[in-house]
Design a protein that fits this description.
By secondary structure, this protein is of the alpha/beta class. 39% of the residues lie in helices and 13% in strands. Helix 2 links the parallel strand 1 and strand 2.
Length: 318
């Protein structure tokens, strides 16, 4: 998965060797791929010795495309959000699992299909729905007020020209196509051909994250993974931008007993709950070799940790 939309790299799983190393799969154990996508991590997990892989994806197209793998008796495909993994596993009589991988964001399959509307590299309808249900990007942009659009662009795209872009979008409505939106954003941002980055990237990211409630899904998914892992189980999470990475970093810091430095205005408060994760690894980024082979991996970051025997916490990441 990735956070950009202007490359045509093949569907290459990012940091695949590092993820499999972090999962440290034991022969015969059950593992979860929370973000199936094109099935790259699932294939690697099965090849690494997992006795069974339960793979989740909210996108029905991804599940349908993965049916070719289903004859493998060790694979179960679930069309559901990964935040629901503990409930779904319990319904199938699975108490806990040994390893969980989460690859956050939009998949290469979604980006490369113009009809899904995630990317501006090829013109298509403004859709951006991962689950194929709910409000489309066009419906949101053509109904939300200027202040709401600006807030979304600022909060989820970290866009410094959010107000100007939102004003331009409202003035140009109705907006129905990805190429239309990209052109509106470029004009509002003063984009000139040859600039290093296309400002439309931040706008597309922000709208996609909002429509799919991706950050809430990540927070809820991390808590679901905590409930689903057995003592000694491994959790590996790959993120593609700072908003996601901050959530994962805070989760592992909090759940491993770490606390941010205090000050005279805000003293350190120690949480009385037992740490649910240990051996939190340092973040891992792609090697130069991987970057050359797969440019979409450039912003990827892997964080991982090992589950303790302590009871799962309640509530979201603070």
């Amino acid at each position: 998965m990735t956070g950009t939309g202007n490359s045509h790299a093949p569907h290459v799983p990012v940091l695949i060797d590092e993820v499999i190393a972090a999962l440290a799969l034991h022969a015969g154990e059950t593992a979860v791929d929370g973000t199936f996508g094109a099935g790259g991590y699932t294939r690697a997990m099965l090849a690494a010795g997992a006795g069974r892989v339960i793979a989740f994806d909210r996108d029905p197209d991804a599940i349908e495309a993965g049916r070719s793998l289903v004859p493998d008796p060790n694979l179960t495909l679930i069309n559901e959000r990964f935040s629901q993994m503990d409930r779904v596993l319990a319904e199938r009589g699975i108490d806990q699992v040994g390893a969980i991988a989460l690859d956050i964001g939009v998949s290469s399959m979604q980006l490369d299909r113009a009809d899904r509307g995630f990317s501006f590299s090829a013109d298509g309808p403004l859709d951006m729905r991962m689950s194929r249900s709910g409000l489309t990007a066009a419906e949101f942009l053509n109904s939300a007020d200027e202040a709401e659009i600006a807030r979304i662009l600022k909060d989820y795209g970290e866009e410094p020209r959010a107000r100007s872009i939102a004003r331009a979008i409202v003035a140009a409505r109705p907006v129905e196509r990805t190429a239309e939106l990209a052109a509106i954003v470029r004009r509002a941002a003063g984009f000139r051909p040859g600039q290093k980055s296309d400002p439309a990237t931040r706008t597309f990211q922000a709208i996609r994250i909002h429509l799919n409630a991706e950050l809430d899904e990540l927070e809820e998914g991390l808590a679901a993974a905590e409930r689903s892992l057995q003592p000694g189980g491994r959790l590996a999470v790959v993120t593609f931008h700072s908003l996601e990475d901050r959530i994962v970093k805070r989760f592992f810091r909090e759940r491993s007993g770490g606390t941010p430095a205090g000050s005279r205005h805000r003293p350190v408060q120690h949480d009385p709950r037992e740490p649910t994760f240990e051996r939190v690894a340092k973040p891992v980024s792609p090697t130069e070799r991987e970057l050359a082979a797969n440019p979409r991996s450039r912003s990827a970051r892997l964080r991982s940790a090992i589950r303790t025997s302590a009871p799962a916490w309640k509530g979201k990441v603070q």
